[in-house]
Amino acid sequence: MSEPHADLTFRTLEPGDEGADAALLRGWLEGLSRGFHDSRNDDAEFDRWRKHAGRDGAVLRGAWPAARVAGGTLPVGTFASWAGELNVGGGRTLGLHMISDVTVAPTHRRQGLLRRLMTDDLDHAVAQGRPVAALTATEGSIYGRFGFGPAVRGRRVEIDTGAHFGLRDLDDPGSLEMVEPTEAWPHVREVFGRHLQATRGAVSRPSFYEMFLTGEYDWDKGAPDKMLRAVLHLDAAGAVDGYALFRHNGDHRKDAAVELVDLAADTTSSYLRLWRFVADIDLVEKVRWGRSPLLGTLDLALVDPRVVTTTALHDTLWVRVLDLPVALEARPWHADGDVVLDVDDALGHTSGRWRVTTSGGAATVRRTDDAADVRLSAESLGQLYLGDVDAADLAVAGRVTGAGADAFAAMADGGPTPWCTTGF
Ligand SMILES: CC(=O)SCCNC(=O)CCNC(=O)[C@H](O)C(C)(C)COP(=O)(O)OP(=O)(O)OC[C@H]1O[C@@H](n2cnc3c(N)ncnc32)[C@H](O)[C@@H]1OP(=O)(O)O
């Protein structure tokens, strides 16, 4: 039997490398667009994409078929990754391997091409010393087999900002200023940077967020985002400590609504004042937001919680542990204890038995030959890693087993619930 994929050439490309083959890069981008059913890209779009992917230091993997009828630059598989940061709780961030742009052409689907690209890429992540990998998924059925679990969930909400909207206590010494999104951008970047350091489950933003949050270009529309608006919140001393980016949906009748694009703030009073602002916009009585936490400060500050309707609940971040001791020692723990985990990891990165000893909120983790107290898969480990799902609930579902499951759950389970407002 011949080698699998013997007819394909596997390459990695670095868009940030000036000497990279521009024709292959262009082909890679077109392969990606084809895979996601997007339109072709013009020269300006290619330049824009390359600039941002280059700034991220992205590594692009692809599989190219031998040229037959076509010119040979379009790959039949695409896969991108780069280094970022993940807040793992307890005020700590870890190096993150961020994965995106995964496509396989219809001619080559279900022949193990994604498996090959994923295996190569995770090996690369380990070689780079990145302890955790993450992605956002198009389908829930793809990534569990590779050790990723849905680790952060979020909600799409519609908020009735009419007569029933009211906040309990809003004692805000600060003020608001509407500015152009490009003027807001340096502040948006700084406030978000603090949000990343403070929020469990938050992920650093890829470079393309600048284009997206300044309205320079909306990739979905293929045009600048001329409807984007920005407001900054300033504290009593005049320093920017919060922002909201939003756009009106263009409907000036019954379905007039504001879509909240992004909102972050350093303090609760700044956060709620920004919500008050968005809710008070005239001629609009609906605000929609796709990045709401499962239960957030706004929900708890509302006089009438029923003004919030959850229109969708989704997984926002899939996580895969690559270096188990580094990952588990970085996250917070909630009870002292000592258990031996036996992890079933089909790709091998976290396989085997590990003694986890917790004391005073911190863990030490060592490889061991001792008998296991707890058994779980790499996928379950990824799912419970940030605390979105309790180990106790996974135990009830039969996904964390063994005599030490209750002890492990007591050690691992505890807030806060993670929240991620970054898509990639
Ligand atoms: C992070 C991101 O970018 S998410 C975006 C994912 N991409 C898309 O949704 C674009 C459209 N889909 C595709 O391009 C392809 O179908 C891909 C990339 C999802 C899968 O690529 P393929 O090369 O067909 O996957 P591959 O053959 O390596 O499959 C590996 C395993 O996953 C399974 N699998 C692959 N895709 C799916 C799926 N969509 N649903 C369920 N199982 C799947 C295969 O059956 C196989 O299982 P096995 O190991 O038990 O035999």
Automatic annotation (TrEMBL):
Binding site for acetyl-CoA: 102-104, 110-115, 138-139
Gene Ontology MF terms: acyltransferase activity
Keyword Transferase belongs to the record: yes
Superkingdom field: Bacteria
PROSITE patterns the record matches: GNAT
Chain ranges of the N-acetyltransferase domain: 8-172
Assembly and binders: Homohexamer; trimer of dimers.
Protein name: GNAT family N-acetyltransferase
